[in-house]
Design a protein that fits this description.
This protein is of the alpha/beta class. It is built from 6 helices and 13 strands. The strands form 3 sheets. A 6-stranded mixed sheet has the order 5-6-9-10-12-11, with helices on one face. A hairpin with a 5-residue loop joins strand 7 and strand 8. Helix 5 runs parallel beside helix 6. It starts with a strand and ends with a strand. It binds fe (ii) ion (2 copies). One fe (ii) ion binds next to loops.
């Protein structure tokens, strides 16, 4: 039994055109096939796979049907968090999603899922992504402050949701946590944030996140051990479509 994670499958079995415009390059060529093969090699039915958001380009559940069928057919149990592109997922209606996909897919939002004596907690998260103003040498000399204010509100809302998830697990007696986000835990301006502080507060062992695509973005946030917590970027292109082992 092992726990694996990856994010940002950006499936598009029913929305070919949009995907082709957005994610280009060698790594994205037949990425569904590469990922499926890696899962078949690595995972068994006893394993759990965390999918850290940006599952599908579909705009609603109907447009995601084939993408979900692909995910369901992967080996093991699947736990999904929300990404910024997951239009099918209304945060307030997560319970309905869990009912609809019961026994097939688990949706993580204002709840938690057990893995042995660990609790998997999480939310979409949010981080300020600019616009930043650069000088001729590419150094940041300022940013859009109104956008930063809006980002602060979204971060606060996501932190509330994350706390609900931690508290639900704690109320059931869990004290070992794996924390999942879609957005990176810190912006490029930060070394810590409300998300890193909450991970510390509850004693999370690992923080897993996705969202960062392309070589210029892979190191936007924390990676490796910081203050006793292991941070891991698991976006599919960063992992070259090979799910990362989180726990044995
Ligand atoms: Fe993504
Ligand atoms: Fe994303």
């Amino acid at each position: 039994m092992a726990l694996y994670a990856i994010g940002d499958l950006h499936l598009h079995f029913q929305s070919e055109l949009k995907a082709r415009e957005q994610l280009k390059g060698r790594l994205w060529k037949n990425h569904e096939e590469k990922f499926q093969k890696n899962c078949a090699k690595l995972l068994t039915a006893e394993d759990t796979l965390i999918l850290a958001g940006d599952h599908s380009w579909g705009r609603n559940l109907e447009e995601c049907e084939q993408d979900f069928a692909y995910i369901e057919a992967l080996p093991g149990r699947k736990i999904l968090t929300r990404g910024n592109h997951d239009m099918f997922w209304d945060a307030a209606k997560t319970e309905r999603l869990n009912e609809r996909f019961e026994g097939r897919l688990s949706f993580l939002q204002n709840n938690y899922f057990p893995y042995g004596d660990w609790a998997i907690v999480g939310t979409k998260g949010f981080t300020f992504e600019g616009p930043f103003y650069l000088n001729r040498r590419g150094q940041i000399v300022g940013w859009d402050e109104a956008a930063e204010e809006r980002a602060k509100k979204l971060v606060a809302r996501e932190l509330e949701r994350l706390r609900v998830s931690f508290e639900a697990a704690k109320a059931d007696g869990y004290d070992k946590f794996i924390m999942i986000l879609h957005y990176p835990p810190t912006s490029i301006l930060e070394r810590e944030s409300g998300f890193t502080r909450m991970a510390k507060e509850y004693g999370a062992s690992q923080v897993i996140y996705g969202h960062c695509h392309g070589e210029t973005r892979f190191f936007d946030s924390l990676q490796g051990e910081v203050d006793g917590i292991t941070y891991r970027l698991v976006s599919g292109d960063f992992l070259r479509w090979r799910p990362e082992k989180i726990l044995d």
